[in-house]
Amino acid sequence: MENSKYPNYIFDWMGGLILFAGYIFGSLSVGFIGLAGKFIFEIDFMQKPWFMMLANAVVFCVMIWAFDYLIVRQKTGKKLNFNFSPTNFSTYLLIFPMMIGMMFIGEFITSQIPTTGPFFGDFYEFFENLMASLTDDPVVMIITAVIMAPIFEEIVFRGIVQKGMINKGLEPWKAILFASVLFGLIHANPWQFVGATLLGTVLGLVYYKTKSLLLPMLLHGFNNLCSAILIFYTQKESFAEAFEIQEWMILVIGIVVFSVFFYLFTFRNKVRYSEI
Question: What is the DSSP string of 96-158?
Fold first, then answer.
């Protein structure tokens, strides 16, 4: 790996601190711009979907920049760089069905979390109102959820956190699990936490096996696109509602589909590319 164009950085507590500091600085910068717009131009930028989209991009860019310049370049002498190679076509035929299976499993588990009651009821109502505000502009939502989020989030959680922990010597399955749980936690609500964590494990497995960050980005975008289609075209929030079947049937289908394609991808598939 000494001659590799990809830096052999590690992710530890210092890396986590740098990412967090980047998040805080980016968020404060965005907040300052929002306040300036409100007082100078008398426009509440913070309520504009396009501003929220750009703000999210700014925060992630600052986080990635901070880790690159303060960790990667200082420790390796190389700039942060990732493998975005495509893979053999058969791999795509395995990873997308595997992702669908896990989406179904995640939906069933999420459906078991209460949406009513003294705590969950108010929290879910707040979450629903927040999601409704984000879907006011379909174009902005598609750009944010299907393009920008997969790129930035996969760079951070798979490219920086997961890969950095594996480079540090942590067992791959532990690094995948840690990055996935962290990925779920940043969604800041129990309903998205379950799905994001489970899907994160698939994204992490695919990245570890293929060494290409392109594939988890495509899968992430595919997952978000499916959610957007459900919301915009069926007015439903789940596959069970859209297909008018019971949640337990979604679970059974998900387990079968995921198990079959997980086995084929993990034990039968031969990945052509490697990171050198």
Answer: HHHHHHHHHHHHHHHHTS---STTHHHHHHHHHHHHHHHTSSHHHHHIIIIIIHHHHHHIIII
- Is the Cβ–Cβ distance between 79 and 27 less than 8 Å? no
Query: What is the arithmetic mean of pLDDT over 152-161?
Result: 98
Instruction: Give one word for 224, left, alpha or beta, with left for phi > 0 and alpha for psi -120 to 50.
Output: alpha
Name which of 46-55, 125-134, 136-145 the model is least confident about.
125-134
Single-letter amino acid code for the residue at 188: A
| Rounded Cα–Cα distance for residues 235 and 237 (Å) | 7
pTM: 0.91
Grade residue 130 by pLDDT with cuts at 50, 70 and 90: low
Q: Are 192 and 179 in contact (CB under 8 A)?
A: no
Quick one: tokens of 91?
């791999």
Residues contacting 52, CB < 8 A, separation 6+: 46, 134, 140, 144
Q: Report CA-CA distances (Å) from 178 to 13, 42, 145, 163, 166.
A: 13, 43, 23, 11, 11
